[in-house]
TrEMBL record:
Keywords: DNA-binding, Transcription, Transcription regulation. InterPro entries: GAF-like_dom_sf, HTH_MetabolicPath_Reg, Tscrpt_reg_IclR_C, Tscrpt_reg_IclR_N, WH-like_DNA-bd_sf, WH_DNA-bd_sf. The lineage of its organism: Bacteria, Bacillati, Actinomycetota, Actinomycetes, Kitasatosporales. PROSITE patterns: HTH_ICLR, ICLR_ED. This is IclR family transcriptional regulator. Residues 1-34 are annotated as: Disordered. The keyword Manganese does not apply. Residues 99-279 form the IclR-ED domain. Coiled coil: none annotated. Residues 37-98 form the HTH iclR-type domain. It comes from the Bacteria.
């Protein structure tokens, strides 16, 4: 885990404990009127612009948000002042800042599910030789809250995002198979295509979920990313609902060649995590 100390924090200005409210009018209880809340929302929208792009210019952010360049510049400057974004001196473009990394790592370390599952995830990576993901549902997507990469899979996983539509991944399908509300929400939201193999209709989605309930695991063969495949099993709670999924990810040919063994390994790991969580 990256430790951020010294100059990386002091570059933002006077030292401040994480979570401490700033002094002055902006920190007062009456500051967040309607306009202030809109400004907070706009600042969060700016951060979302960097979800898929490493660096962006002021014009890029303004175009994505549909605002004037002066507004985008003002928002970016405010975020830079708090260390949430920073300006690359070489490119003169903006990127996410180190304080955002710090806050993200704090939140990451406090997720009980991740802490409990981590030893089993490491064991699974060692035994399988594949990259391992721990994922949860978020809205109509699936979010990977832990990724343990295998050395041989690093080129495959380079710059791969951690949020995907539920229908496009094995983790998403295996969670939705045991969560009717999630499945219904995904169907209502539609089925955007990530590759030519991605599920495109409610009928296909229902068939895939029925298959998951029969076998206890889900597969993804090039449905999210060309050339990549995965197999996932659910972490079930006491009621039989899914609270998370564990998946193995690797080159499509490799996963398909040894699918039975990979499915068995990931299912055993998911059951161990469920037991440790008290299911």
């Amino acid at each position: 885990m990256i430790a951020i100390t010294g100059p990386a924090l002091s570059a933002r200005g006077p030292a401040r404990t994480v979570g401490e409210r700033p002094e002055g009018p902006e920190g007062s209880d009456g500051a967040l009127k309607d306009g202030g809340l809109r400004s907070v929302g706009a600042a969060l929208d700016v951060l979302e612009c960097f979800a898929l792009e490493e660096q962006l210019g002021v014009s890029d952010v303004a175009r994505r948000l549909g605002v004037a360049k002066s507004t985008a510049h003002r928002l970016l400057s405010a975020l830079c002042a708090r260390g949430l974004t920073e300006k690359d001196p070489a490119t003169r473009q903006y990127r996410l800042g180190l304080h955002l990394v710090e806050l993200g790592q704090i939140a990451h370390s406090r997720v009980e599910l991740r802490r409990t599952a981590f030893p089993m995830l490491e064991e699974l990576r060692e035994v399988s030789g594949c990259t391992v993901h721990l994922s949860i549902a978020d809205g109509v997507d699936v979010l990977q809250i832990e990724r343990l990469e295998s050395i041989r899979a690093i080129p495959l996983m380079a710059r791969v995002r951690r949020r995907w539509p539920v229908h496009a991944t094995s983790s998403g399908k295996v969670i939705a198979a045991f969560d009717p509300r999630l499945a219904a929400a995904r169907k209502a939201a539609g089925f955007p295509a990530c590759t030519e193999r991605t599920i495109r209709s409610a009928e296909e989605f229902d068939r895939a979920l029925a298959q998951v309930r029969r076998t206890g695991f889900a597969t993804n063969l090039g449905e999210a990313k060309d050339g990549a495949a995965s197999v996932a099993a659910p972490v079930l709670d006491r009621s039989g609902g899914s609270r998370a999924a564990i998946s193995l990810v690797g080159p499509a040919a490799e996963i398909a060649r040894d699918l039975g063994r990979q499915a068995q390994l990931v299912t055993i790991a998911a059951r161990k995590v469920a037991q440790c969580l008290g299911a």
